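Hey, I was hoping to borrow your eyes for a little while. No rush at all, and the record is pasted right below:
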Amino acid sequence: MNFNYLSRYQPALLSLFRFITGLLLFQYGVAKLFKFPAVPYFADIPPLIYAAGTLELVLGAALMLGLFTRLTAFVLSGEMAFAYFMGHMLKTGSPVFLPLLNGGTAAILFCFACLYLSAAGGGSISVDAVMGKESDASDGAYARR
């Protein structure tokens, strides 16, 4: 099957992917910091999780807007890698490698989604595009249009 006709939607779909990824990270920040919605797992969080929630709230909002997308996504990718290794794989003291067993599937997916966005940029519908940051890029999805 040939799906080349979908390539014309690539810039808009990249922007939608960026927005949804940011929104999902933003919701984790809201749940951790403001206890909304009330999730028992985030009821009494330690300072490290509070810091992670702050990153997810602030940088998730920046990702939704497409503001400094490459830097924002890169930092969030690192945070999600750290979250996987410290919060999931090593949470019991002995390493649990399988994401299905340690609950780290979302952290891995967020890590690589943000890593992709750090390389691809924010897309055509972003604050970066309005400011001209994406058009100045020598590569990346937006510049190839």
User: Anything to note?
Assistant: The helical segments are 10-34, 47-65, 69-89, 99-102, 105-120, 127-131.
